[in-house]
Amino acid sequence: HNFNEIIDASIDYLLKKDFVLYPDFPTGGLIDVSKYNDGQRGGIVKVRAKIEKVDKKALVITEIPFGKTTSSLIESIIKANEKGKIKIKKIDDNTSANVEIVIHLLPGVSPDKTIDALYALTDCEFSISPNTCVITGDKPSFMGVSEILRYSTDNTVRLLKTELEIRLKELQEEWHLSSLERIFIEEKIYRDIEECETWEAVIRAIDEGLKPFRKRLLREVTRDDIIQLTEIKIKRISKYDSKKADEHIKGIESEIEEVKNHLGNITAFAINYFRQIKKKYGKGKERKTEIRSFDTILASKVVANNAKLYINYKEGFIGTGLKKDEFVCDCSDIDDIIVIRKDGGYLITKVADKVFVGNDILYAQVFLKNDERTIYNIVYQDGKDGPLYVKRCAITGLTRDKEYNLTKGLPGSKIVYFSANPNGEAEVIKVHHKPRQRLKKLIFEFDFGQLGIKGKSSMGNILTKNPVHRITLKEKGLSTLGGRKIWFDDSVFRLNVDGRGTYLGEFGGDDKLLVVTKDGYFRMAGFDLSNHFEENILIIEKYNPGKVYSVIYWDAEQDYYYVKRFVLEESEKPQCFINENPESKLISITEVEYPRFEIHFGGKHKSRDSEIIEVAEFIGVKSYKAKGKRLTSFMVDNIREIEPVVKKEAPDPATENVDEEPQHPLQHNDPAQMKLEL
Hints:
This protein is an alpha+beta fold. The protein folds into 4 domains: 3-147, Gyrase A, domain 2 (2-Layer Sandwich), CATH 3.30.1360.40; 165-281, Topoisomerase, domain 3 (Orthogonal Bundle); 301-475, no CATH class; 485-675, no CATH class.
């Protein structure tokens, strides 16, 4: 655990506030503590290496998971590569004071998918099951880290109280002896022993001399106190300074009051003690392991294809060992295969060297679980002489090696036409009837786009009740699924189609994502769910090629604020749209067409009235590489965006259908505005 976080948690506990404690490892890396369970039995934490993209050809590991070394990590990556689960070119270990493992990728290999594969298939990610145990009363006791911290904090308070009590007794003893010494010297009791001839007589004489002053002392005078008085040297008595002695006693009395106050407010004293400990020793002990929520990575989705799948359609065998038979596709040794037969039966089975799946195989391919975009278009005959049914369905999840059927299951049923469409395409087919009396229409066409997508167990619609000679493809169709709805989950910085996070829109074809970061860079990205994104994202949205952005930034080289307007250009490589000096910083970015900013002046120009900048009038639209225009030469305290005065107007409903172009553009209903602190 982290030193500073333990101190903070102890303070929160003493202040009766809630607190949580999570592991922090000296090796850094990432950690998912969603199932930590306070360190008790049954809990689990996932730890990951920190992997960054250098470019499209290389990855770099800068922090490793706890419990692993650079050697063991590299060894696990090499083993996964040798088994064909990942595809890398070479690994360079440049580790010195800091970890730096560079992974060079083969041409055409996705860096994002490789990162996921490293987490799923190597030691770059693994799980730790904590089970905190302490010894209490000579017996092992299992308790959570929060309970351990409470026990430890209470014990610290008890120790502090004990130390204060010991210190109080020491001060009281010092005050007693100092007061006794002052009485002995100022009252000249030492003269009473001049006529004494024995040691006992000396003790009695001093004891008698102190009796009138005993009420002024904190405790009874003991024989040891008297003996200590007899040991005072004549030189010290002769040079005794009463004023200095009084100041010393008052100093002791002041410290006694302070100690008593601390004892009376022991909780506040303990809190201050913890704060002083953190102030003295906390520097340089900041958290090293970053707390993140990990998304679940399925190994079957990221493993590299390390085998080839072959099929014998006639005999009904499929596997990676049938190299003399027909090639189907590349696959991995952990993939599942979907097999559909002509009788309508189908099943899911694991990739194997050779496995029998049934005669008359119609279709075989790698099965993607929960894939709702692959749509199967089917025409089947119900029974030996029954009507023909047509259906569209997706197959998302099944029990492995269990038989299912796409038809109604009557004996003699068979699939007459079949197509698998990875993006929900709907083709047009031509149906040829067998000639028969009174049948006027021997050939007709059917468009699958007219048919809704239903469940895999649905019966479908009747296509025809007449005997069919053959069915042929007339023309390929377009996808009926529309764009793919994408969300961005900022807790894991990943895209998803499950509705988690911010909705980004529907994506299809060549659509791109725009990513703008807080340090003034932008880039385009695809909408593949395996993509990884920066943690300092300011804007992530669907890319609109014609959108104008207005930006205010601080130029560290010129020491002035600048404003610029520009249209972004497509680039997968991060491009800087402010000054590239590391000290330069992005202040504000807005998509409003007619933005306005209010400048509040500071420093020696604090008395100057605020100034409003109409950005569209102040500067024209230029390239993102342009420097822009200096906003002001005066010292600035704050810049804020205010409501625009000029807005786009919506077209008049009465003239909405007129062919002429409207005089005013459409209103910008939802302007995205982003602002950073100065």
